[in-house]
Amino acid sequence: KEILPIMDTLEKSLEIETENVNEFKKGVSLTLDKFKESLNKLGIEEIDTSEKFDPNFHDAVMHEKNDDYGEKEISDVFLKGYKKDDKVIRYSVVKVVN
Questions:
Q1: 46-97: which CATH number, 1.10.238.10, 3.40.50.620, 2.30.22.10, 2.40.50.100?
Q2: pTM for this entry
Q3: I need a labelling partner for 16 at 20 to 30 A (CA). Which of 7, 51, 79, 85 fits?
Q4: C-alpha to C-alpha distance for 9 and 22, rounded to whole angstroms
């Protein structure tokens, strides 16, 4: 029930014809905010990628040398991960510095 209104909003947005891209982006952004709020109410949160790589929450698909980061720090996020409590729903797909 929590996410169905968001699906309704997205379906309605596809029916709208507009040439104003910024207006359309604003609508999508508002819908995304509402979706994140619904996930939060369900106890689902985004996995933090600002800390060092943790194989319990992150999936490293690339490695690089980069002097701007410390060892095992995440330098790029390809796909955000989500968890409920400490159970991973989807791992964050990341690039890690060696």
A1: 2.30.22.10
A2: 0.79
A3: 79
A4: 17
